[in-house]
C-alpha cells in the first residue's frame, strides 16, 4: 500500500492516509483503503479501527482534481463505481470505526469521515462540507443517507443543497461530531473511544452495525450502484463541466 499505513495500538488499528498534503482521492488511494480495511476485517487481533491523516491540517480534501477530472466516461465509471463500493463496504464494516479528523474534510473527505461510526474533530478554523453542489456534482442516495444519519434529515438537506462548510463547532452542534478536542489530544481521545467500543462483544457489534445500516435507510450496495449512470450523465453534462472547470481554476489560482 503506497498511500495508507496501518499502525497498531494494542487491539486498535490506526489507518493513516498519507497521499500528499491533502490526501486527494484517486484510484490508488481507494484501492489502498480497501486493502487496509479488508486486512483488518479478517484479523482477529484488531477489534476497532481509527481512520486518520498524516497531513498536518487536512483530513482529506476530496477528489484529486488533476487525475479524476481528466477521466473519460469509462474511467470515471470505474473509479466512482469503486469509490461507491468502498463507502458501502465501510458503512457496514463489522468492527467499530472512529474518524480522527485533524483538519479540513471536504467532499470525498467528508464522506470518509461520515462512513465511520463516530467522528472526533480537532478544534479550530477548519471546514467540513459536502460541497459537491458547488462543482455541479450530484450525490448518490447513499451519500445523502450518511449525512442524514449523522446529523438528521433537516440539517443534512441544508448540508447537501447549499454545500456550506461547517466549522468543527457547528458540526458538533448538529450532532455530526461526538467530541471536539485540542489538536494534541486528538489521537489520544480517538484511541480512548475506540478502546471503549472495542470492548463490546464483537459478533454482536458486527451484526448490529449491519442492522443499523439497513434500518436507517442506507441503501444496499446494488441499489446505490444503480444510481451510477445518473451520476455519470450529470458529471459529463455541460453544467457540471463548466462548474468543475471554474472551481478547479479558482483552487489552482
List keywords for this structure.
three-stranded parallel β-sheet; six-stranded mixed β-sheet; 9 strands; 253 residues; 2-enoyl-CoA Hydratase, Chain A, domain 1; alpha/beta; globular
Fold and architecture overview:
The protein has 253 residues and is α/β, with parallel strands linked by helices. The chain has one domain (4-186, 194-198): 2-enoyl-CoA Hydratase, Chain A, domain 1, CATH 3.90.226. Helix content is 50%, strand content 15%. It has twelve helices and nine strands. Strand 2, helix 1 (27-41) and strand 3 form a beta-alpha-beta unit. The chain is globular, with a radius of gyration of 17 Å.
Could you write a compact summary of the structure shown?
This protein is an alpha/beta fold and 253 residues long. It is 50% helix and 15% strand.
Amino acid at each position: 500500500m503506497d498511500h495508507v499505513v496501518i499502525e497498531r495500538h494494542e487491539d486498535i488499528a490506526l489507518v493513516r492516509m498519507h497521499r500528499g498534503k491533502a490526501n486527494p482521492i484517486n484510484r490508488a488511494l481507494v484501492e489502498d483503503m480497501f486493502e487496509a480495511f479488508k486486512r483488518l476485517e479478517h484479523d482477529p487481533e484488531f477489534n476497532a479501527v481509527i481512520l486518520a491523516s498524516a497531513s498536518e491540517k487536512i483530513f482529506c480534501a476530496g477528489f484529486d482534481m488533476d487525475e479524476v477530472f481528466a477521466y473519460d466516461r469509462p474511467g470515471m465509471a470505474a473509479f466512482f463505481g469503486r469509490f461507491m463500493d468502498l463507502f458501502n463496504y465501510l458503512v457496514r464494516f463489522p468492527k467499530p470505526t472512529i474518524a480522527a479528523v485533524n483538519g479540513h474534510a471536504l467532499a470525498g473527505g467528508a464522506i470518509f469521515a461520515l462512513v465511520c461510526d463516530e467522528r472526533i474533530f480537532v478544534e479550530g478554523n477548519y471546514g467540513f462540507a459536502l460541497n459537491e453542489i458547488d462543482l455541479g456534482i450530484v450525490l448518490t442516495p447513499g451519500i445523502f443517507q450518511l449525512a442524514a444519519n449523522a446529523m438528521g434529515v433537516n440539517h443534512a438537506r441544508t448540508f447537501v443543497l447549499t454545500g456550506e462548510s461547517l466549522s468543527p463547532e457547528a458540526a458538533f452542534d448538529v450532532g455530526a461530531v461526538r467530541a471536539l478536542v485540542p489538536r494534541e489530544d486528538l489521537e489520544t481521545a480517538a484511541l480512548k473511544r475506540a478502546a471503549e467500543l472495542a470492548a463490546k462483544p464483537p459478533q454482536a457489534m458486527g451484526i448490529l452495525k449491519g442492522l443499523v445500516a439497513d434500518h436507517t435507510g442506507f441503501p444496499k450496495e446494488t441499489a446505490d450502484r444503480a444510481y451510477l449512470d445518473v451520476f455519470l450523465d450529470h458529471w459529463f453534462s455541460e453544467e457540471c463541466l463548466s462548474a468543475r472547470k471554474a472551481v478547479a481554476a479558482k483552487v489552482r489560482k
